[in-house]
Amino acid sequence: MNYEAVIGLEIHAQLLTETKIFCGCSTRFGSEPNTQTCPVCIGMPGVLPVLNKRVVEFAIKAGLAMNCKISPYSRFARKNYFYPDLPKGYQISQYELPICEHGYIDINVNGYTRRVGITRIHMEEDAGKNIHEKDCSLVDLNRTGVPLLEIVTEPDIRTPQEAALFMKKLRAILRYIGVCDGNMEQGSLRCDANVSIRPEGSSEMGTKTEIKNINSFRFVEKALEYEIKRQIKILRDGGEIVQETRLWNSETGRTESMRSKEEAHDYRYFPEPDLVPLEISHEMLEQIRATLPELPDEKIKRFVTDYRLPDYDAQILSEERDIAEWFEEAVRLGAKPKEVSNWILTEIMRYLNETGQEISEIKLKPLHLFELLNLIEKGTISRNIAKNILPEMLNTGNSAEKIVQEKGLTQISDTSELESLVDEILNRNPKEVQRYREGETKLLGFFVGQVMKATKGKANPKIVNEILRRKLS
C-alpha cells in the first residue's frame, strides 16, 4: 500500500517591536540573562498587563499580507500550563476569537501551485528559556512576554519539500512587511509540524504527531522526511501510531518522543480577565492596509512583465525585499535588467553566502555595478577583468574605474596591436594551426587563451575572436 502525508504547520514569529507585548521591557536579543524583566512579565502578584498597540498593528499587517479576514472583534485568553520558564503559570494568548482567520499563501512546487490555507493568526506572549547544564537547569526570563504571532495552517501540505517552501515563502512575507526578522537561529521564527499519513486516495485523517521547535528550513524537510518514513514503517509492521509530541534531533537525524500530545481542553482556556476585548475599526484597518508594500508574488509578476526576466530570476530576486530593491535601483540607473540579474544571482549572491551579510550591508552599491557594466559595454574592460575586480569592489567600495586605472587593466582594443600578437601566436603554434584548418575548430579556444595569457587578460576577446577567425580561415 502506498501512503501520502498530511502536514500542517504552526509557526511562531517573534515581532520586531522595541518593547514586550504587555509591558515596557526591551525585546533586544542577546542581553545578559534576566536583565530585561519587570513585575509584569515575570508575573508578580497585583500587576496588570497593558497591550502594546504596535503588536496589534503588526498582527493585522501580517493577516492582510496572507489574505486573511481581519476580525473586527477579538479577545485574549489564558492558556494554563506549568513549565519553569512560564512564571505566571499561564500564557496570555488568543483562543476562540483570534484576530485573523481564513487566509492562504500560494507556493510554487516543481511547476505547479499549491494553495496552503491559513486557519488563523493570533497574538500571544512568548515564554522564557530553559538552559540545561550538566548538573543543573537554569531559567532566563528575558524572552518572557516578547510578542509572538502564531500562524496555523490548514493540513494542506503533502510533502516535506512543500513544507520547506511554505516556510521560506512565509518568512519572505514577514520580512517584506517588516514585522519579523525571520532569524531562525536566534529563535525569532520557529516551526512546529503536525504530520500524519494515510493510504493514497483516502480522505480520512490518520493519527498525527507533532514535531516541536524546528529552527531551519533544512531541518523542517529532514524532520518530516524521517517522521513520515517512521510512521509508514509502523503501519506496515502492523503497529499503531501514537498521538504524541516529538523533538527533532539534528545530530542523530531522528525524531524522539517528548510527551503525549496535549488537546485544547488540557490548557483550560478562559477569557483573560485583565484585558478588555479588542475592537478593530474600519478606519484603522484601511490605514494599515495602505502601509503594505508590494509583496513577493506581485513583484515576481512585475519583474517578468516589465523587465522581461525569466521566472527563475524573478523568483530569486524577489525572495528578499532588499535584494529586489537593490536590483531595481541598478536598473533605474540605466543598467540592463538581465545583466544586473546575472551578476546578482552569481557573483554577488556568492559573496553574500560567504560573508553572511545582507545586501544592504555590503560596500558595493547599485551605482558601482552600473558603472562596472558600463565599462564592459564600452569595451574598456572585458567581462573576465570585471569578474576579477568585483571582489575588490565588494571589499573596499571603490569604483570600477578607480581600480582599473590604478592597476592598469584597461582592455586592449587596438586592432593593429592585437593583429601583431595573433600573428606571433599563430607562428609559434604551426601544428595547431594545421589541425584547426583540417577541421578541429574547437582549437579556436586554445588560440584565444594564448592571446589572453600574453596580455594578462586585457585583450578584447570579441576583437581577438574576429582576428583569429579571419587569419585561420
Key words describing this protein structure:
473 residues; alpha+beta; Arc Repressor Mutant, subunit A; 3-stranded antiparallel sheet; 16 strands; elongated
List the helices and strands and how they pair.
Elements: E1 3-14, H1 53-65, E2 69-70, E3 73-74, E4 77-80, E5 90-93, E6 100-109, E7 112-125, E8 129-132, E9 137-140, E10 147-153, H2 160-176, E11 189-199, E12 209-214, H3 217-236, E13 244-249, E14 254-260, E15 270-271, E16 278-279, H4 282-289, H5 296-307, H6 311-317, H7 321-333, H8 337-355, H9 366-378, H10 383-396, H11 400-407, H12 415-428, H13 430-437, H14 444-454, H15 461-472
Helix pairs in contact: 2-3, 5-6, 7-8, 7-9, 12-14, 12-15, 14-15
What does this entry look like structurally?
The protein has helices spanning 53-65, 160-176, 217-236, 282-289, 296-307, 311-317, 321-333, 337-355, 366-378, 383-396, 400-407, 415-428, 430-437, 444-454, 461-472; strands spanning 3-14, 69-70, 73-74, 77-80, 90-93, 100-109, 112-125, 129-132, 137-140, 147-153, 189-199, 209-214, 244-249, 254-260, 270-271, 278-279. Helix 7 (321-333) packs across helix 8 (337-355) and helix 7 packs across helix 9. With 473 residues, it is α+β, with helices and mostly antiparallel strands. The chain has 3 domains: 3-288, no CATH class; 296-407, no CATH class; 415-472, Arc Repressor Mutant, subunit A, CATH 1.10.10. It is 40% helix and 21% strand. A 9-stranded mixed sheet has the order 2-6-7-10-1-11-12-13-14. A 3-stranded antiparallel sheet has the order 5-4-15, with no helix packed on it. Strands 3-16 form a two-stranded antiparallel ribbon. It is built from 15 helices and 16 strands.
